[in-house]
Amino acid sequence: MSAVFTRVDDRLGALALRTLDPEADAPLLHGWVTHPKAAFWLMQDADEAQVIEEYRRIAAHPHHDAYLGLWRGSPAFLAERYDPAHVELVGLYDHQPGDVGMHFLCAPAGAPVHGFTRAVIRTVMAWLFADPATRRVVVEPDVRNTAVHALNAAVGFEVVGPIAKPEKDALLSVCTRAQFEAAAEHAGHTAAAESPAATRTEGAPA
What does the alpha-carbon distance between residue 86 and residue 94 come to, in Å, rounded to a whole number? Predict the structure, then answer.
């Protein structure tokens, strides 16, 4: 299956996204979504059949789709795109034309790679903004997911405020194209100053 989007990270090389295959990718995804680091993905107790069912449902949905992320050609993350006027946030926020919702999950890694999660979210954001119709990216991570709040801020998200969803208390945040581009430019200026000993939380879902 061919990639729908590719980005080359200055440090980590090629990252890409391809359409997810619910049946073929289910064994891999099951290990990711049930891993302790993926607690905020809310599928800890799912079996493989339930993972297939969930991603078949997403594949069939007219306003929600899922993609497998590749790093140097190997599966390494999961990304979902949705229309918040129809999925996840219906009636919960002030929807604007051009809004696109996003979730992402990095695969659990035995040896975390410095900067990997940040490279993934930048890739996912670049993919979403590659569509000229996208004006803002909207996210609603769990209010307790402080690791992903920091990642969101690093790529330009601005917090709107907490919202109550049926499955969680979420922190609604939005990022315009201009905010993402400004954050990317800032990151480019400061990358050389980052300490090579710095650590990041890997695998935090959004």
Answer: 13
- Residue 30 makes CB contacts below 8 A (sequence gap 6+) with 46, 47, 48, 51
Residues in the chain with pLDDT < 50?
192, 195-206
- H-type helices in 35-159, by residue range? 48-60, 116-129, 146-154
Q: Which of 82, 202, 79, 81 is nearest to 151 (CA)?
A: 202
Count of CB atoms situated within 10 Å of the CB of 159: 12
- Exposure of 74 by Cβ count < 10 A (0-12 exposed, 13-18 middle, 19+ buried)? exposed
Distances from the Cα of 58 to the Cα of 107, 120, 173, angstroms: 19, 21, 23
Pairing mode, strands 74-82 and 13-19? unpaired
User: Model pTM?
Assistant: 0.90
Instruction: Give residue 111's pLDDT.
Output: 79
Q: pLDDT, tens digit, for every residue of 129-165? A: 999 999 999 999 999 999 999 999 999 999 999 999 9
Buried b (16+ CB within 10 A) or exposed e, 124-146: bbbbbbeeeebbbbbbbbbeebe
Rounded CA separation 25/70 (Å): 13
Look at the block and give the residue holding tokens 């920091």: 150
* pLDDT reported for residue 198: 34
Question: In 22-176, which ranges are continuous DSSP H helix?
Answer: 22-33, 48-60, 116-129, 146-154
